[in-house]
Specification:
The complex is a heterodimer of chains A (about 250) and B (about 230). Chain A has about 250 residues and is an alpha+beta fold. Chain A has a four-stranded mixed β-sheet. In chain A, helix 4 links the parallel strand 1 and strand 2. Chain B is mainly alpha-helical. Chain B contains seven helices and two strands. Chain B has a two-stranded antiparallel ribbon with strand order 1-2. In chain B, helix 4 packs antiparallel against helix 6. The termini of chain B are far apart. The chains are: A alpha+beta (about 250), B mainly alpha (about 230). Chains A and B meet through helix 1 of A and strand 2, helix 1, helix 2, helix 3 and helix 4 of B. Chain A: It is a single-pass membrane protein.
């Protein structure tokens, strides 16, 4: 066996050339395309990872937003609840105050009504008392003489102004002398004399009766009315009682 | 006149250079491989077709093997180991074509392959470890081992191409003998076996070349490790 050195050299050169050519046209492009695909896959994976991160961030943001919304809703509900509570308390307070006011007004009205009723009752009692007194005095009063009331009538006429005295019981303004019972002639004459003396002129009198006077006289002439009788006294007593009872 | 079976006679001469049959066959194989590579590389796409997928699978498997052996990035060794594997594979299988004798059945082709592996071992050893560092690996684990390591470099290179030559050449001889003795169809099973042997031998040659290179580029680390172990002892 011998080695052909020319063939050995040529084959070595051939293989070196083949090595370069395959490296240039086969292995390098294959490695490049694989690397490019790997890079593209990595980019896709990175993009997918970013998208996933973004989606997770969006989910977290949505969760946070939902939490914030829930908190805001809770705050609004709490505020509304407090507002409603405050309004309710205010309404209760207003209603309470209104009830108190109404109650006070009612109590005032009741007091007023009671006072009026009491006053009316007192008035009625006073009237009743004076009526009772009038009935009680009817008997004794009938026995009193007219002359017992003439001095008092004369004093009342004397206390009138002079112009009034001169104007009453005149023919232009005749006076009426009213008694509880019809006067006897001498009593009427005595009364005319007394009145004329008190007035300073001849009095023009007419005589009349009014049982409600109980006892005594009433001189009426125009605007002037002079009461000298028990009814007037009872009326004054009644007025005094009314004023006392308020 | 019967020609010596292990001798490649010149087919023609280019000046003083004799062109033998293995050289012609190698040129044809080179042309086919380069043409295929050029056509394939022009049509590479991000979405690969069937052929591109097969080629990418081969390249990926090659990178995986180189990475497992060298324990580093396979890119610097991909073209060398890949070219050796593909060439030996195609050259071995070219014997299945009628009238074609595999170039690897001749000692010169296998020696050229082994010579390239030897040169690549030196180149990458020096590239990774530096000249001094690579030379220091011959004194590992002890300077006494320098002669043995030097002899190892030669003998393993010889064993590399002798193994390939013996397997392919024997297959060719057996088929030729069976063809001359038995007839036309009898050698077919042996030819199928020869294809299997050729594929296995291509793989063995490439892997052994890869192992030699891997050993060269990793011997620095081993040497330093052994030195530390000796110091500790």
């Amino acid at each position: 066996m011998r080695i052909d050195w020319w063939t050995l050299g040529l084959q070595t050169i051939n293989l070196l050339v083949l090595l370069w050519l395959l490296g240039r046209f086969f292995f390098r492009p294959m490695a490049k395309i694989v690397a490019e695909r790997q890079a593209a896959a990595n980019e896709l994976l990175d993009a997918a990872r970013k998208a996933q991160d973004k989606a997770e961030a969006a989910v977290q943001e949505a969760q946070a937003e939902r939490d914030r919304s829930a908190a805001a809703r809770e705050a609004v509900l709490d505020a509304a609840r407090k507002e409603a509570e405050a309004q309710r308390a205010k309404l209760i307070e207003t209603a309470h105050a209104e009830a108190l006011r109404k109650r006070s007004e009612a109590e005032t009205a009741i007091d007023h009504a009671r006072s009026e009723a009491e006053a009316q009752l007192a008035r009625q009692a006073n009237v009743l008392a004076t009526d009772v007194a009038a009935h009680l005095l009817e008997g004794p009063g009938a026995r009193l003489p007219v002359g017992a009331f003439l001095p008092e009538l004369e004093q009342a006429l004397a206390e009138l102004p002079g112009r009034t005295r001169s104007a009453i019981a005149t023919p232009a303004a005749p006076a009426s002398l009213i008694s509880a019972r019809p006067l006897a002639d001498d009593d009427a004459q005595a009364a005319r004399t007394a009145v004329s003396g008190a007035l300073g002129h001849d009095a023009t009198l007419s005589f009349d009766t009014d049982p409600s006077l109980v006892a005594g006289l009433r001189l009426s002439s125009g605007m002037v009315v002079l009461d000298v009788n028990l009814r007037a006294d009872l009326d004054r007593v009644l007025a005094g009682l009314d004023s006392r009872d308020g | 006149m019967i020609q010596p079976p292990l001798t490649a006679e010149p087919v023609f001469h280019l000046g003083p250079v004799p062109i033998t049959q293995p050289v012609l066959t190698t040129w044809a194989i080179m042309a086919l491989m380069v043409l295929f590579s050029v056509l394939l590389s022009r049509r590479l796409k991000q979405r690969p077709g069937r052929t591109q997928t097969v080629m990418e699978l081969i390249t990926g498997a090659l990178d995986q093997q180189i990475g497992d052996v060298v324990q580093s990035d396979p890119a610097p060794y991909r073209a060398l180991i890949g070219t050796i594997f593909l060439f030996v594979f195609v050259a071995n299988w070219s014997g299945a074509l009628p009238g074609v004798e595999p170039p690897t059945a001749h000692l010169e082709t296998d020696a050229a392959l082994a010579l390239i592996v030897f040169g690549a071992t030196l180149y990458h050893g020096v590239r990774v470890n530096g000249v001094v560092g690579y030379l220091k690996t011959f004194a590992d684990p002890h300077w006494v081992m320098i002669p043995l390591n030097l002899v190892e470099q030669i003998t393993r290179t010889f064993s590399l191409f002798i193994r390939l030559f013996g397997n392919v050449m024997s297959g060719v001889f057996i088929i030729a003998i069976m063809l001359s003795l038995a007839g036309f169809l009898v050698p077919i099973p042996l030819m199928a076996l020869d294809l299997l042997t050729g594929a296995v031998q291509a793989y063995i040659f490439a892997i052994l070349g890869c192992v030699f290179i891997g050993a060269a580029v990793s011997e620095r680390g081993d040497a330093e490790k052994n030195s530390r172990e000796r110091s500790a002892a």
